[in-house]
Amino acid sequence: MVRNKKYALKDIANDLNISKTTVSFVLNNKGDENKISADTQKRIKEYAKKNGYVPNQLARGLSRGKSETIGLIIPNISDTFYSKVAGVIEKEAQEQGYTVLFSSSYEDPKKEGKLIHSMLNRQVDGLIIASTQQNQKEIDFLKKEKFPFVLFDRYYPDKDTDYVVVDNYLGTKKITKHLLGLGRKKIGLITLKPGLEPIAQRLQGYKDALIDFDIKPEESHIVEIERESYFKEIENAIINLISGKKTVDAIVFSTHYLASQGLRVLKKLSISVPKDVAIVSFDELSAFDIVDPPITSVIQPTNEIGSTAVKILLNKMNGAIHGKTETKVLETKLEIRASCGELE
Amino acid sequence: MVRNKKYALKDIANDLNISKTTVSFVLNNKGDENKISADTQKRIKEYAKKNGYVPNQLARGLSRGKSETIGLIIPNISDTFYSKVAGVIEKEAQEQGYTVLFSSSYEDPKKEGKLIHSMLNRQVDGLIIASTQQNQKEIDFLKKEKFPFVLFDRYYPDKDTDYVVVDNYLGTKKITKHLLGLGRKKIGLITLKPGLEPIAQRLQGYKDALIDFDIKPEESHIVEIERESYFKEIENAIINLISGKKTVDAIVFSTHYLASQGLRVLKKLSISVPKDVAIVSFDELSAFDIVDPPITSVIQPTNEIGSTAVKILLNKMNGAIHGKTETKVLETKLEIRASCGELE
DNA sequence: ACCAACAACTAAACCGATTTAGTAAGTAAG
DNA sequence: CTTACTTACTAAATCGGTTTAGTTGTTGGT
Asked: 0.85 cut: is pTM over it?
């Protein structure tokens, strides 16, 4: 509350009988180019250090029109995927002298819109967003303003923006083909209700894998679940897949939490994995290699996602590639474990 | 780069032929208390809305000396424990109109110190810190400045500060006693090298549980590992515990990552859990209930930790409880699963 | 002796708000 | 017709920096 007034630029200037201008030049390492004598520079720098001077970033940001801050908007920082990516984003940003402001949208497009504007008011220099994909308007706004931003994980396929994503399509395609290659013929998919590009891609990859093996995708083998209530819905989903007339012998889960909850349910129903049904997961949790059975997963390169996002954003912010958008589609990696029946 | 100048307070004032003062009063809902006529208030508000005016938070922050931002400094946002807590902190903060700036210290005291100052320069209104516990100086500085901050997870036991932690001592004590109650007599502990209060408490809880059962803690049963190299060190640690002359029949792991890596090693060494050795973990990963075997864990109340930290911080920031420090020690919960041998 | 060039600074505007200390006009009381 | 209050505003300082456009004093060339 009662912050004692900080030691400011003005104070150094007064104490040293030098103008604010000179002090500012020197402390921003623009002393030489502004012909400040070596002696004066030394005096200022030493005095500043001695008194523990640190610039007020709000003031600096206000006058420079930038804040050395980047905004990160994600669905939920508590999700391991996003927290991993956030970790590398923050690390890279920190190395470049940026601090990151983050906010979770909780998959609410309205909140996401507000957050975008709130971040802009706070004068962030750039934004990294894993969008709900329901904010066409805000995205257009950002583009119109030529505000630097990059999307990751979720993007707007029909908009020309910078983004970094993984090849979701190929991810499920590879893993589904792997199951098919192991002799599983009736493969189910438990996924989320449509709306997100990665989810759509994962669905398509699954279907195309079947088609490549001359199997017609059965609608009854595809269960789309509401994200908010997946915890409850998944049991019925599995029961339907397992006990219907066309019982499946494998299930592809399109997210890590569907997979882990799915496995819980399978255990509860005493269905043997992978004997009765094989399972695989898109994305993973860090203990998936020691669960019973270890779950075959499509691994996303979280490090690369984060670092690429930051790299692209910094390019944009520096105006290096003005106009041209930069996009990156990263490959996923299959981690074959016992749950798909190969190693048992 | 070329942000077109934003629509500012001044512009509203000019367009409406009204002073900035009046506009500022009205838009801050201080119109009535400053006797601005209802008519004028309406005009200003409508005009502002129509033109999508939003205040520049840097300018506001600069003149008010506060930024509606709270800083969060944690060891690593990628760790599930911290990401969960960070999630609830951000959620609660968001509800109160605050945005959170976060940075990871990666357990580096120097970096933590820098981050604290960097946050202060950015004029955060308060700080929430899970400290490396090596920054006495900075903590004293914050106290001296009467800057609002609250510690969580790690605190400075000999300093009078606000904090919220869990009862680490009781956590390991309970879990160790549980093992003893199941007939395990030779219980090992795999933990981190000393330096952090929670780790010290967990060690003590383990020892005291043994003592309560009239068992003298054996130094050779306690292995302290370097955090940075736990991945490699843990194999030797386990081999020593298992194959020494005084073989253990149970192992307490003091963190979730030690436990999961420990289990990997035990599997690799073909040691049966819990038949040969039972294991338990302090803290957990979200899949610990489906690993093989499910790992008995001491659960930390992440929601409560986060929300309590924010509550205390807001109290401090509002000067409600000036002077008096507020501390909270939360209870852990035992989640009994198969790895401790009870349910097999 | 005079002007140009340069070295070493500085005054003041500005970024976009907030806030203190007024002011002008209208009304009511004595 | 003063004096004293209100009402409804506003001018200007301030927060703490950055930056443009000068200003002085010295040196060197002719």
From this structure: yes
